[in-house]
Amino acid sequence: MYMKISWKKYPSTSFYDEYVTPQNTLRGHSKKIGTFLESLSIEDLKEINAATETAIKSMGISFRVYSEDSADGQDRMWPLDFIPRLIRKSEWLQVEKGLKQRVKALNMFIEDCYNKQEFLNESDMDKSLVLDSPAYKKYCVDVKLKHNTWSHICGSDLIKAHDGKFYVLEDNLRVPSGVSYMLENRMIMKRVFPELFYQYGVTPIDAYPTKLYETLASVNNSRSKKPEIVLLTPGVFNSAYYEHSFLAQQMGIDLVEGRDLIVAKDGFVYKKTIEGLVKVDVIYRRIDDDYLDPDQGNPKTTIGVKGLIRAWQEKKVAIVNSPGCGIADDKAVYAYVPKMIKFYLKEEPIIRNIKTFLLTNKEHRNLVFKNFKEMVIKPVAESGGYGIVIGKNCSRSEKDATIRKVMNNPRNYVAQPLISLSTTPTYSGDSLEPRHLDLRPFILSAEKQYVTVGGLTRVALKKGSTVVNSSQGGGSKDTWIV
């Protein structure tokens, strides 16, 4: 006898589920797919899951994970859950508007910090948050950029809370990754669920590589109608190398390493080819600031290009994202984004922030330590979920160790209340179970702004976990704007 899925038996939780109401009925926008899933047996689901894994293997979609045991890292198959995340189009249009507003203000803030410093002088923000940050680059002072844009590609992480509304968790303004997996997830889902796509009228996402190319071309400082654009990668051992090669191939540009480029005596950047040197106009860099140029960062870097920062300062090459934009990528600076929106744009923020406590503030610190079990403590400059402490999971000794770390360097930490991330049905072997998720849309800014239609949904595959990062056991879903 075939076992079937029943939403009546779907485990109810205290979290907001994006498919199912607390009364175990399907929400309006999930009825079509919910009814379709109910028509399937557990055996059918196993077959769909196997077909998904086969498609991922045949397309060679992987990511690299580093651990203490392996310096070179291991390639792992990309984890995709075949049940899509659904977002209503009307809701998405509002989110898109909010993201454009947010990134516009952040770019104005970066520009201002390296030039007039009006926000730092007029707001209640402690200037040292920016001016003493390792991300603040003195070589960016007085630099003015085309379209006044510093972070041309931003990946903002959104979560949906218990009230069913989206909030911004953080902004990634330096070298955000994950967009290739958003595109690949869609290709796989079209193979696995073709009939559902037509029934739902899912909004397509495949414009992204073209929009990215247009963004890169629009920051070109030369008069060339067809600028020479390259993607600069740290190399095959980087965890996002798969994405670097995928995007370069999709845009039809060269993927290069530092050793393939040279800054010549005339101050311009050239790539080495079999036919000789070819002048480069725009570099889409996937390398952190400190490794871009041994003259201006880590003097031992072997993945950067000597003289690159000077060429950029002299407008002889454009770099995307610009060096120095990490000052707005700090989790302590995040707390001030709503004020930036009001200051620069004279508007109210469309998408809200999560309440953030700065641990340099004694009052905030005492409140956080007192309510430790309800808090998440985060290091301000880490990414990938590293260094995060979830209060409710801590033993007494772990709590004490965390408090000691914070007291030793309060500037290095912020705290936020533990938000109950929304859930969505996820395949778990012999049933569908709720799992927590977040969303990373990508915002392109230059001459025009563009937001991906949806984004990369990351899902915590372990029951009860809120850690969605693939490097720590998370997976992904295709995001359907319906």
CA-atom Rg in angstroms? 23 Å
The biggest sheet amounts to: 5 strands, mixed
Strand content range: 15-25%
Total number of β-strand segments?
23
Order of strands across the biggest sheet?
Answer: 3-23-22-19-18
Look at the structure and give the mean pLDDT: 92
Low-confidence stretches: none
Portion of residues within helices: 25-40%
How far from one another are the termini?
35 Å
Shape: globular
Instruction: Give the helix tally.
Output: 13
- Secondary-structure-derived class: alpha+beta
List its salient traits.
482 residues; alpha+beta; 5-stranded mixed sheet; 13 helices; 23 strands; globular
Helices, strands, pairings?
Layout: H1 31-38, H2 42-59, E1 62-67, E2 70-77, E3 80-87, H3 89-113, H4 118-122, H5 128-131, E4 153-160, E5 166-172, H6 179-192, H7 194-200, H8 208-218, E6 229-232, H9 241-251, E7 254-256, E8 261-263, E9 269-273, E10 276-279, E11 282-285, H10 308-313, E12 318-320, H11 337-345, E13 352-353, E14 357-358, H12 362-370, E15 375-379, E16 389-390, H13 396-408, E17 413-417, E18 423-427, E19 432-440, E20 442-445, E21 449-451, E22 456-460, E23 474-481
Parallel strand pairs: 3-23, 5-13, 6-7, 6-11, 11-12
Antiparallel strand pairs: 1-2, 4-5, 4-20, 8-9, 9-10, 14-17, 15-16, 15-17, 18-19, 19-22, 20-21, 22-23
